[in-house]
Write a sequence for this structure.
């Protein structure tokens, strides 16, 4: 009896992978429901224009247009577009304008979807980082409270218990990137290899200074 109950409970619990797939499918379904008829028509047209058959059709159509107009006098037929084929150029220009508009409309919605996914991924990453910092903090508290474990100073664990401020990280990244670009753009540098070497040396120097600071802190704590 208990075995059957355990099987039923196991079957009732959904696989995490299936749950994640269902969540992604639900998000896509909600996004598709918000698309109106005009947007769907334009996106269907964009998908049709992006096929290789449409490219081959353009080549065949342009070739027939030029060939028939060029051979019309030989076949004693009227020529409706004399070389250099002004009507053909106008049709190609109008078609290019329409195709550009259709593609931009499709890319506009896809860009909004990509922006929403990036925002969702950023929120999930921040939430995961906060949870990880909380777990490390709880483990550190448990380690300090356990009498059987020797209490010691772990600077790396203390640093990981602090949550990262995304604004501070972005500001630091931008300032270091500007400094690096300014260093690589100085006249003293003769090549990009020289700039890369200078950046590598700066990174190594910063890493060595950080290691020395950690070592001094550990010695003072002991």
């Amino acid at each position: 009896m208990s075995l059957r109950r355990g099987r039923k409970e196991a079957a009732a619990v959904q696989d995490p992978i299936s749950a994640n797939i269902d969540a992604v499918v639900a998000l896509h379904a909600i996004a598709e429901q918000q698309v109106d008829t005009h947007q769907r028509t334009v996106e269907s047209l964009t998908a049709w224009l992006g096929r290789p058959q449409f490219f081959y059709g353009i080549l065949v159509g342009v070739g027939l247009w030029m060939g028939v107009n060029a051979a019309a006098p030989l076949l004693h037929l009227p020529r409706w577009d004399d070389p250099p084929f002004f009507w053909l150029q106008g049709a190609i220009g109008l078609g290019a304008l329409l195709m550009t508009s259709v593609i931009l409309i499709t890319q506009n919605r896809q860009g909004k979807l990509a922006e929403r996914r990036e925002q969702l991924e950023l929120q999930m990453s921040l939430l995961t980082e906060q949870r990880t910092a909380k777990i490390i903090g709880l483990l550190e508290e448990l380690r300090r409270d356990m009498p059987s474990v020797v209490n010691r100073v772990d600077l790396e664990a203390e640093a990981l218990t602090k949550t990262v401020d995304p604004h501070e990280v972005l500001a630091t990244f931008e300032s270091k990137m500007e400094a690096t670009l300014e260093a690589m753009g100085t006249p003293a540098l003769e090549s990009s290899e020289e700039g890369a070497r200078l950046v590598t040396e700066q990174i190594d120097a910063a890493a060595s200074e950080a290691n020395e600071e950690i070592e001094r802190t550990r010695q003072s704590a002991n």
Q: What stands out?
A: The CA atoms of residues 47 and 103 lie 9 Å apart. Residues 187-191 have pLDDT under 50 and may be disordered. The radius of gyration is 32 Å.
